[in-house]
Design goal:
Radius of gyration: 28 Å
CATH topology of the largest domain: Porin
Number of strands: 35
Oligomer: single chain
Number of domains: 2
Structural class: mainly beta
CATH superfamily of the largest domain: membrane protein fhac: a member of the omp85/tpsb transporter family
CATH class of the largest domain: Mainly Beta
Largest sheet: 19 strands, mixed
Distance between the termini: 27 Å
CATH architecture of the largest domain: Beta Barrel
Shape: elongated
């Protein structure tokens, strides 16, 4: 069985759930039901005011039919015989770019007063009555939404009399929220002293903490706090084998408990290459301004250093760039052959060295649309794998010594220069962890291959890559349906095997490891359903715990293989722990031709 696990935080996070500490980060919005007319009668109509007080920087959705993102704020009165409630009257909304740099949306912010007029019939008996309202709302940033609060119950007590004074029904309004109104966690006194350091924010005057804020690109006056946590780590695939170790991480978060940055260091031991030292950093101060950095070093020359940085806020948000870099030397790579019919029994091992860099420049001035041009360069070298095969992989041949190397293109050095044109249409409700909307990216490329001594390899080829996603959800957004499709076409088939189209990995066919299947063209579709089981405050961070089921379908085709021949149909399920709107811990388990397979990790999830 193939297995892949990345569990650096799961154990500790679930041990210390909301049963241990209940902080106000779960509910950053203060809601009150108010009225100046505490006594009503059938003579005159009356009203209540539903007040939603949001901290500065937090946004709310307008009426459901008018809302794009955040989702609509819905106020539903409980039926009481003889009481007649009119449609809630919302104040005039503001217009903001939500998510940032994506599109304009109407929103409510600061202290919002929504008026609900009502009247009572003459036959309603005098006495005290509780007026109850069910309120559905979604606190959000301009980077995206937090957890949706579904039908929270709020009440006010009024008296019904035979007569009453005429009241003036006020107009809905938006009032300023004071600068000192923000989410404040409860005391840490009820936390055992030995565990308190994982909950309590670190001293912001410390030089180390100030330095971390600079690394995370936090602006002056950001108001964020940093926490420290040790964690166990474990990673295993049939390629990389088992790694286990310990590490420690610093987390950066807003007062409302949204993670915007992480830096971790860990040390582990791997069955195949011995010791590994890892450093990882993620920063997401805004939906369109983020980076991810990873550096791994280990025995047998293992090296993996990568950086991915997006910034679509250049020149007053009219332009942007997407930069990526990777330096890889992986002595544990696997190759099974070309095409859909390859089997696990034909597994071979090889060492791959790859230097990759890419830069895409974008124009983002048109709402929901991005146009970009880019260039990328890759330098490849294929060599022998790790020198001392361990017992668990003794029967795996080197690729160069196996029959799979006969006539295989790419067992030498080669370089690839690509010129690209990108078209992106994006109507997702937010960049990461979206719930509604459509996204598509089309990339056309012209590619030139050099530094190869094999005359059978094509010198040039054209490529087309298409990624499409459609998200569906209801008002509560507890249930999300995701449909995905991908297509990768190449004009030539005589390419080095590591330049071919591929299937496998957490963003493709999740029943297989990266590049498990290789061929000229690749097609992929997926249907996924996610359901929020519950929300919890874990170590002071509000988390949505989601369970999902999916079906991934795909295949390699071309070079006399038609689409539909050898189609892979692989079901699976996932567990997602999401700190909206940014960071998530994702674990997938899927069933494919090679058996069951885990994928997952920490990052900025789709």
């Amino acid at each position: 069985m193939q297995v892949k696990k990345f569990i650096p935080f799961i154990i500790l996070l679930f041990i210390f759930s909301k049963n241990l500490i209940a902080q106000t980060v779960e509910k950053p919005i203060v809601i009150k039901i108010m009225t100046d007319a505490k006594t009503v009668s059938h003579e005159y109509p009356s009203y209540v005011v539903v007040q939603l007080k949001a901290p500065n920087g937090i946004l709310l959705g307008v009426e459901p039919k008018e809302a794009r993102t955040p989702p609509g704020t819905k106020i539903t009165p409980k039926n009481i015989s003889g009481f007649h409630f009119e449609k809630p009257i919302f104040p005039e909304p503001k217009e903001e770019w939500i998510p940032a740099k994506l599109g304009k949306a109407k929103v409510l912010k600061e202290t919002v007063n929504i008026v609900v007029p009502f009247s009572v019939d003459k036959n309603v008996s005098p006495g005290a009555y509780d007026l109850t309202f069910y309120i559905t709302y979604t606190p959000s940033y301009n980077a995206g939404k937090l957890s949706t609060h579904v039908k929270e119950e709020y009440s006010i007590n009024i008296n019904v009399a035979s007569s009453s004074k005429k009241v003036i029904i006020p107009q809905p309004s938006i009032e300023p929220t004071s600068s000192d109104f923000y989410v404040k966690p409860k005391s840490f006194d009820d936390i055992p002293s030995g565990l308190r350091f994982m909950f309590k924010p670190l001293n912001e005057e410390n030089a180390l903490i100030k330095g971390l804020h600079k690394i995370w690109i936090d602006k002056p006056g950001h108001g964020k706090t940093v926490r420290f946590m040790p964690f166990p780590s474990m990673s295993s695939t049939n390629i990389t084998s088992l790694s286990a170790g310990m590490g420690a991480a610093f987390f950066n978060s807003t007062k409302e408990g949204t993670m915007t940055g992480m830096i971790s260091m860990s040390g582990s031991y791997n069955d195949l290459i011995g010791g590994i030292l890892s450093l990882r950093a993620i920063s997401c101060p805004g939906a369109y301004y983020n980076y991810q950095f990873l550096a791994n070093f280990g025995g047998e020359g293992y090296r993996d250093i990568s950086l991915h940085h997006e910034n679509f806020t250049v020149a007053n948000s009219k332009f942007g760039y997407d930069f990526s870099f990777r330096s890889l030397e992986e002595p544990r790579m696997r190759f099974y052959g070309i095409g859909n019919e390859t089997v696990g029994e034909n597994e071979t091992a090889y060492r791959q060295t790859n230097l990759h860099t890419a830069l895409d420049l974008y124009s983002v001035g048109i709402q929901n649309f991005r146009f970009g041009v880019g260039v990328s360069y890759d330098d490849y070298d294929v060599g022998t794998s790790f020198e001392k095969l361990r017992t668990s992989v003794e029967n795996i041949d080197y690729l160069q010594n196996s029959s799979l190397s006969n006539g295989l293109l790419g067992i030498d050095e080669s370089s690839l220069l690509s010129l690209k044109v990108n078209f992106i249409y994006d109507r997702k409700d937010q960049e990461f962890t979206p719930a509604t909307g459509f996204y598509s990216k089309l990339t056309l490329s012209r590619n030139s291959i050099s530094n190869t001594e094999n005359n059978l390899i094509a010198e040039d080829y054209y490529g087309l890559n298409l990624d499409m996603r459609q998200y569906f959800s209801g008002p509560s957004q507890n249930l999300i349906v995701l449909m995905r499709a991908g297509l990768d076409l190449k004009s030539e088939s005589n390419l080095p095997f590591y330049m071919l189209s591929s299937l496998g990995g957490p963003n493709s066919m999740r029943a297989y490891d990266f590049e498990r299947y290789l061929g000229q063209h690749a097609a992929f579709i997926s249907a996924e359903m996610r359901y929020t089981l519950f929300s919890a405050t874990i170590l002071g961070y509000p988390m949505d715990i989601e369970m999902g089921a999916f079906l991934d379908v795909g295949q390699i085709f071309g070079d006399s293989v038609d689409i539909g021949d050898g189609l892979k149909v692989d079901p699976g399920f996932s567990i997602r722990m999401i700190n909206k709107p940014n960071v998530g811990v994702i674990m997938n388990y899927a069933f494919g031709d090679d058996g069951g397979y885990f994928t997952g990790g920490i990052g900025l999830p789709f």
